[in-house]
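Intended use. Records like the one below are meant for learning the mapping from a protein sequence to its folded structure. Do not use them to infer anything beyond what is encoded.
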Amino acid sequence: MIKEAVVAVAVLVPCGAYAQGARHWPAQQIADLEKKIAGNVDPARHLGLERFLDGATLIYRDGPSEAEVHQKLADFITVRSGEGEVLVGGTIVEPRASAADELRGPSMTGGTRYRIGAGDLLYIPVNTAHQFF
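Structure written out for the chain above:
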């Protein structure tokens, strides 16, 4: 269960695809993005986000997510603030296509629950179900 909002950077890693050239985001720019997305949370999804590089997204989550699977991308998540839990590796209940190469569903069965908090890193392999709490 999310005790406070989780701010995380989720990097969806396509196989063999990398950004061209170095990129730098100063801490103040990231702090400004965090404020922006915290003010634009979709209440139905408990989610605010800002894409800042092809495959990298700053996420603000203030409640649980649906279960999801990225069929061609891995997730590499670093938690900037907050705490919660992520269920990884189970099976999605009633999966449906939600975008190209992505499935979502209301919940999951099975898997391993990981407690996450500020400073933690979490890697979720390609084609692995996961859900945030």
